[in-house]
Specification:
Layout lengths: L1 E8 L4 E8 L2 H10 L3 H17 L4 H11 L2 H12 L4 H11 L2 H13 L4 H9 L3 H13 L4 H32 L9 H13 L3 H19 L7 H18 L13 H15 L3
Antiparallel strand pairs: 1-2
């Protein structure tokens, strides 16, 4: 990626053009992450609009986006808070949905081992599904220096962060101006449905989704104490996925690169979230 900058030479009274090239891994990161922004933009808009629809103030909605920075968790926490769930239940739900980040962290940690503590902390804050997937793929493709690894990862991660925050703020502004009778809440279950269907690609995953969604729905209908229906559904779904997986032939299992258990552990929660709306 080149940027042209005019340079004036007073001794010759001429102007030349100096071409500056972005570091290779920054340019590569921008190029790789660009297609993903198509899906991030509407998701961020929905997250911002849903926050306002659930009764959060604009400042609270933006603060939640900056602190949490996780789409599915944000939507789950927003809905639970909108239903007057206790703060502890909302926090636990968000943490459980994001448990896969622990797996991502353990997987990518060797590539960040030589980073200084402050860079590790920054990298941890902006770690997302997309940043992890792109970075792991890039690191496997080519041997990079410590600086190159940091440049690529932070370019991808912060591009996602910036676009997400801008879209969330835009969603907050739009949501605050949309009449209540328009019912923006319908967009939230559609988002979760779009996340759920592509991920249910194996028997353990399908079992986790069905059992988790069913238990979560029962918990919602019968008003489990402290809004624990979602957590109960998530736990039941994970257990169902483990049981089915134990009876599945090894040849049918997904490879580690497919983040099999990341999907199984979050599928019941995604399915259960649909029962809340």
């Amino acid at each position: 990626m080149d940027t042209s900058v005019p340079v004036y030479h007073p001794h010759t009274n001429q102007v030349s053009v100096s071409t500056r090239r972005l570091p290779a891994e920054i340019a590569r990161g921008l190029r790789d992450v660009a297609p993903l922004l198509i899906g991030i933009i509407p998701f961020g808009l929905v997250a911002g609009a849903a926050a306002v629809e659930s009764g959060l103030r604009p400042s609270q909605a933006v603060g939640l986006s900056v602190i949490v920075f996780a789409g599915a968790s944000q939507l789950a926490v927003i809905d639970l808070l909108g239903q007057n769930a206790t703060l502890s239940i909302a926090v636990i739900t968000g943490v459980v949905i994001n448990l896969r980040i622990l797996m991502y962290s353990a997987s990518i940690a060797p590539s960040f081992q030589s980073f200084r503590p402050r860079w590790k902390a920054i990298a941890a804050y902006v770690l997302t599904d997309q940043a992890y997937a792109l970075s792991i793929s890039r690191y496997a493709e080519k041997e990079l220096s410590r600086t190159e690894r940091r440049r690529y990862y932070l370019t991808v991660a912060f591009t996602l962060w910036i676009v997400w925050q801008i879209c969330t703020i835009a969603g907050v502004v739009i949501g605050a101006q949309v009449p209540d009778e328009w019912g923006l809440g319908f967009a939230v279950p559609l988002v979760f449905l779009s996340l759920l269907i592509p991920a249910a690609a194996s028997r353990p995953a399908i079992a986790a989704a069905v059992v988790g969604g069913t238990v979560g729905t029962v918990g919602t209908v019968y008003n489990f104490p402290f809004n624990l229906g979602l957590i109960t559904g998530g736990a039941a779904g994970v257990i169902a996925g483990v049981v089915v997986d134990s009876y599945t032939e090894t040849s049918d299992e997904s490879s580690p690169e497919d983040n099999h258990w990341c999907r199984v552990s979050t599928l019941p929660l995604r399915f259960g979230l649909l029962s809340l709306f």
